[in-house]
Amino acid sequence: MNNSEACTTIIVGSRMSADGSMIYARSDDSTSVKATRLVHYPAGKGPEEFVALDSPFRCPLPEKRLGFSALEREDLPYHWGEAGFNDLGVAMSATETIFSKAEVLALDPYVPEGLAENSVYHIVLPYVRSAREGVLRLGELIERYGSAEGFGIAFMDAGETWYLENAGGHRWLAKKMPEDMYYVSGNQSRYREYDPSSDLASKDLVEWAGEHKLFRGEFDFHEAYCLESENDKTYNYPRVWYLQKMFTPSVKTDVRVNRFPVYQKADRPLTVEDIKKAFRSHYDGTEHDPYLHSNPKEPYRPVSIFRTINTHILQVRPGLPKEIGCVDYMAEGMADLCIYLPLYQGVTSYPKAYGVGTKHSQKASAYWTFRKVMCLGMLNYNKYAPMIKERYAALEERISASQAEMEKKFLALCRTKDGHPEATPEAVRLLQEWSDRILSQALRTASDLEEKLFTQLTKDIEAEYKFHGA
């Protein structure tokens, strides 16, 4: 198992959330020098063909695309889009790395020139008008070109959330998220049952597995297609166990056994703040907390890890204009030592620093500014992390209050169409100006924290190496 490309996923149904919104969240846990940059592509004529720069994959694309936002890497433009919304308010996040078992890959191996995380976002999101349509387009592409790796991919619109898990080179299963449940995953396929009356899947999903005797008794997607290994018991199981324990403490499960419910009910309705806390978690205060105990060899892999590139919490609030109803709360880097920034669907540009993201530290890069704060914090987590968390928590609270005020003004500037508020140019301009101001403020706060931490580090090193004999 390659742990270098390994993420955590949380999905919340509309009747499981406190405000009736739908939430999909994921951390991209790869390597900390893969800097994220924010990009928006306008609607219109796009590339005629997707040609991967870092794999053999290529495929033709429709003539016209919808506008869309992406979290990319500067050295690979129009690749690795990660997460965002298109002009119609359809959200996509790609991908949660999962693994098929060896017997499946021996029969239907991954296709090196097939679809991978580098390509799926840009060849799907700009061309779909609903979450369901996103699943169908992606499924058709998997069957035509094959998958180069294992992945779980989410789609969300104003009415539905769908999550697709692939299997082997050419098979897949997608389910609509139950409205009154939540779902968590840590680098393992979670699906079990398949209901052809409600689910979407490759045409021969069950028949092919049965033909090759990949399951016993009733069809079980996980049993038939998915990897179970000793490594899962410390790398994957603990994250699912801990997150379900956070949201549903009333239900006891065994961290050592993969019998965690695919979908679970929380003991109380969940909020975006709950999801932020979940992605900042690291078995806080327990014997398995690697940061509290300064133990990089801790066997239980935590949710929040240093090599996270970004964490995004995609939220859709039906009933609001998509410009403010669709928002991505994004943290650049390790969520535990970062600030979540609200990126609204109606925003089409970002301060210049947010568009810079190379594999080398740069003063001009927002990503690297936030990353430097994390680096300093990790030098002495128990002393420096509280300084970071206190400052970011205060700013997040001010941003939240400012959001509520801005959204109220935005709605006042909207016109009514068919009984629903619709954004006007004046409202969109207000939103854009607010976003620019907030993102710039967050960057200044991170820069101030960097200087404060560096000053404290200087004092601490001097105290340790004083040599004051006189």
Give the secondary structure arrangement, pairings included.
Blueprint: E1 8-12, E2 22-29, E3 37-41, E4 44-45, E5 49-51, E6 58-60, E7 64-65, E8 68-72, E9 83-85, E10 91-97, H1 102-107, H2 120-124, H3 131-145, E11 151-156, E12 161-167, E13 171-176, E14 182-185, E15 200-201, H4 205-211, H5 221-225, H6 232-235, H7 237-247, H8 272-279, E16 308-316, H9 322-325, E17 326-332, E18 341-344, H10 366-379, H11 381-413, E19 415-417, E20 420-422, H12 425-464
Antiparallel strand pairs: 1-2, 1-14, 2-16, 3-8, 4-7, 5-6, 9-10, 10-11, 11-12, 12-13, 13-15, 16-17, 17-18, 19-20
Helix pairs in contact: 10-11, 10-12, 11-12
3D architecture notes:
- The chain is an alpha+beta fold and 470 residues long.
- Helix content is 32%, strand content 20%.
- The chain has twelve helices and 20 strands.
- The strands form six sheets. It has a six-stranded antiparallel β-sheet.
- Helix 10 runs antiparallel to helix 11, helix 10 packs parallel to helix 12 and helix 11 runs antiparallel to helix 12.
- The longest helix is centred in the C-terminal third of the chain and has 40 residues.
- The protein starts with 7 loop residues before the first strand and ends in a 6-residue tail after the last helix.
Summary keywords:
470 residues; alpha+beta; 6-stranded antiparallel β-sheet; 12 helices; 20% strand
Strand order of the largest sheet: 14-1-2-16-17-18
How far apart, in Å, are the first and last alpha carbons? 57 Å
Helix tally equals 12
Whole-number average pLDDT? Answer: 97
SSE class: alpha+beta
